[in-house]
């Protein structure tokens, strides 16, 4: 297809505003897929996506559309996730697009991810087609939504906002016409050397790594000799093709097209999303600008439970191929053995990775308590950056100060919930920077420790503002904080996987909660097990896990003193024998602690 008849676009929206439903409807109208016996939501086909009802990964599909004037267009649609934890996927999709549909749910209005994703589109200078969805719903508030869209950006006032129902198909044809009219054609040079951006990749056990590419310049042919620009490594493609949405081989792709390349490479580290693929024999000079390296927000240890380390390693490597925001490095724990330290974009991301390991790879894992990463200044002024594992925190006697990451957080909240939001921010150690009144919305800017917002802040904010608050974060800096390490000893042996880094003000209460939780979730032994929480060498909380059997030494039975003493002695010997290596830490321990 000629470039003037190609349109590459994405749909961006807040979670649940109807992107996947609209994608399905577009595929239905353009006859891309037969809907006779379709399951709903063709693009959300991962198990985790079906179970949570959300899009986790971006999908791509080529639709052929015959417009009102009888012209045929190739509309390459890239579906994007809406959850805050997957905004990195959104930036990747947008880098391959020439325009976006901004979809707003008529019953909810503009929400946090509408704003965040709109900003990404604007930063990429992409034209925006504003669309209000779910107008068939009796609770639709179309006027309110229009006003909120205009409030988002003055430049949108000139736009004609479409009112559609992705569910019934009402006015979806107008969306297709607007795509053709308002989104520019790709403007690559078909005669220049090949220049293609990898915006995604998947692992196929037979074909190896399949790279999803946007061709900027030149032509790509099947079985062509190619190379990656980041490391000059060459390969010959085994197959190239398009998304229908299943993979369909073609002989040639050219500038403006979106398609895939079967690289044949099996090593998951061999293909990097954001890299440029060019021709080996006639390479381009400049690579396509790549992506900003992703910044992990929370870190946790992942260890094999019923499988072995090598299987887990392969699974994590493959998973990271189509989830380039997953950071991982090998790690070793005294209590959990060989595993990985992983970085995630947020808690939901962590949960999805854990579920994908089970669903896609059949691997059960133990996930340790998550934390952010810290910077430590030692007494001699030497700095240790990136302490992402509490067990690696140096002894307190060597530490001069500890710094933790802070975000600048902007929240737009209805004035009615402002005081509750401010209470939440204060409890989360927030520092108020500015407060601006804008009609009945108040914009609050806070500096907040990432450790406080990483876990449940967003959900709490949503709940106290009844879903109306918008929330946007930007990394600010590392600031000195009164941070301490809580270590847990079980039966007088330290357990490295149970180490926590917290603010000193929360240490005592947290330590009490942890040891009391452990009392109920820790597997019992035949003897009592003391569990102690330490901060800076001092025990600040303790419980004794009762033994499995009746403790004869303290039972009410009438026994001679010497017999009781003999029993006590035996129990003491058992006590000494056990080391942390004998302690089994089931996942329920970490789940219970996460609950705190
Ligand atoms: N009444 C009505 N419901 C709709 C419409 N479009 C989508 N929905 C419903 O809204 C819910 C969310 O739709 P999805 O298409 O999954 O939303 P999404 O934006 O793809 O969500 P994520 O994949 O999580 O980002 C589903 O229950 C849809 O059936 C519409 O036009 N009208």
From TrEMBL:
Its EC number is 3.6.5.n1. It catalyses: GTP + H2O = GDP + phosphate + H(+). One of its GO terms (molecular function) is hydrolase activity. SUPFAM superfamilies: EF-G C-terminal domain-like, P-loop containing nucleoside triphosphate hydrolases. PROSITE patterns: G_TR_2 (PS51722). SMART domains: EFG_C. InterPro entries: EF-4, EFG_III/V, EFG_V-like, EFTu-like_2, LepA_C_sf, LepA_CTD, LepA_IV, P-loop_NTPase. Residues 4-187 form the Tr-type G domain. It is an enzyme of class 3 (hydrolase). Keywords: Cell membrane, Elongation factor, GTP-binding, Hydrolase, Membrane, Nucleotide-binding, Protein biosynthesis. It is a peripheral membrane protein. Signal peptide: none annotated. It is found in: Cell membrane. GTP binds at residues 16-21, 133-136. Its main location: membrane. Belongs to the TRAFAC class translation factor GTPase superfamily. Classic translation factor GTPase family. LepA subfamily. Required for accurate and efficient protein synthesis under certain stress conditions. May act as a fidelity factor of the translation reaction, by catalyzing a one-codon backward translocation of tRNAs on improperly translocated ribosomes. Back-translocation proceeds from a post-translocation (POST) complex to a pre-translocation (PRE) complex, thus giving elongation factor G a second chance to translocate the tRNAs correctly. Binds to ribosomes in a GTP-dependent manner. This is Elongation factor 4.
């Amino acid at each position: 297809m000629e470039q003037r008849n190609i349109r590459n676009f994405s749909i961006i929206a807040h979670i649940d505003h109807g992107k996947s439903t609209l994608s399905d409807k577009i595929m239905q109208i353009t006859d891309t897929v037969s809907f006779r016996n379709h399951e709903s939501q063709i693009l959300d086909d991962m198990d985790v996506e079906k179970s949570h009802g959300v899009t986790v990964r971006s999908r791509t599909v080529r639709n052929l559309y015959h417009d009102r004037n009888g012209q045929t267009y190739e509309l390459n649609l890239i579906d994007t996730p809406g959850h805050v934890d997957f905004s990195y996927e959104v930036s990747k999709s947008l880098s391959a697009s020439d325009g976006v549909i901004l979809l707003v749910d008529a019953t909810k209005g503009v929400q946090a991810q509408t704003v965040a994703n709109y900003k990404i589109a604007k930063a990429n200078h992409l034209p925006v087609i504003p669309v209000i969805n779910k107008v068939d719903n009796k609770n639709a508030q179309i006027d309110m939504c229009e006003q909120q869209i205009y409030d988002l950006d003055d430049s949108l006032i000139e736009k004609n906002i479409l009112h559609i129902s992705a569910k019934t198909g009402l006015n979806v044809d107008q969306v297709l016409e607007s795509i053709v009219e308002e989104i520019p054609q790709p403007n690559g040079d078909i005669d220049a050397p090949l220049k293609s951006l990898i915006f995604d990749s998947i692992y196929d056990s037979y074909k190896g790594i399949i790279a999803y590419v946007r061709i900027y310049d030149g032509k790509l042919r099947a079985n062509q000799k190619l190379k990656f620009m980041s490391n000059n490594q060459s390969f010959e493609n085994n197959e190239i093709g398009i998304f229908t949405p299943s993979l369909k081989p073609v002989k040639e792709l050219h500038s403006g097209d979106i398609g895939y390349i079967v690289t044949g490479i099996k090593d998951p580290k061999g293909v990097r999303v954001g890299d440029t693929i060019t021709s080996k024999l006639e390479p381009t000079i400049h690579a396509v600008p790549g992506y900003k390296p992703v910044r992990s927000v929370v870190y946790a240890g992942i260890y094999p439970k019923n499988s072995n380390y090598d299987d887990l390693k392969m699974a994590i490597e493959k998973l990271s191929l189509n989830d380039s925001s997953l950071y991982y490095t090998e790690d070793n724990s005294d209590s959990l053995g060989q595993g990985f330290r992983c970085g995630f974009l947020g808690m939901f991301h962590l949960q999805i990775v854990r579920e994908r390991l089970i669903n896609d790879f059949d691997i059960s894992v133990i996930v340790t308590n998550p934390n952010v990463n810290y910077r430590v200044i030692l007494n001699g002024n030497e700095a240790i950056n990136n302490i992402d594992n509490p067990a690696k925190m140096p002894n307190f006697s060597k530490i001069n100060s500890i710094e933790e990451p802070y975000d600048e957080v902007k929240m737009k909240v209805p004035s009615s919930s402002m005081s509750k939001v401010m209470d939440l921010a204060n409890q989360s150690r927030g520092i108020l920077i500015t407060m601006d009144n804008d009609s009945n919305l108040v914009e609050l800017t806070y500096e907040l420790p990432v450790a406080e917002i990483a876990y449940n802040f967003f959900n709490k904010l949503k709940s106290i503002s009844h879903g109306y608050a918008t929330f946007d974060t930007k990394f600010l800096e590392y600031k000195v904080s009164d941070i301490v390490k809580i270590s847990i000893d079980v039966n007088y042996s330290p357990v490295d996987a149970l180490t926590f880094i917290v603010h000193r003000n929360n240490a005592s209460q947290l330590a009490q909660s942890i040891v009391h939780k452990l009392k109920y979730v820790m597997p019992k032994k035949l003897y009592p097990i003391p569990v102690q929480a330490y901060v800076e060498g001092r025990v600040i909380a303790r419980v004794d896990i009762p033994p499995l059997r009746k403790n004869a030494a303290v039972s009410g039975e009438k026994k001679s003193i010497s017999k009781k003493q003999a029993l006590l002695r035996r129990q003491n010997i058992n006590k000494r024998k056990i080391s942390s290596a004998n302690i089994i830490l089931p996942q329920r321990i970490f789940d219970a602690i996460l609950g705190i």
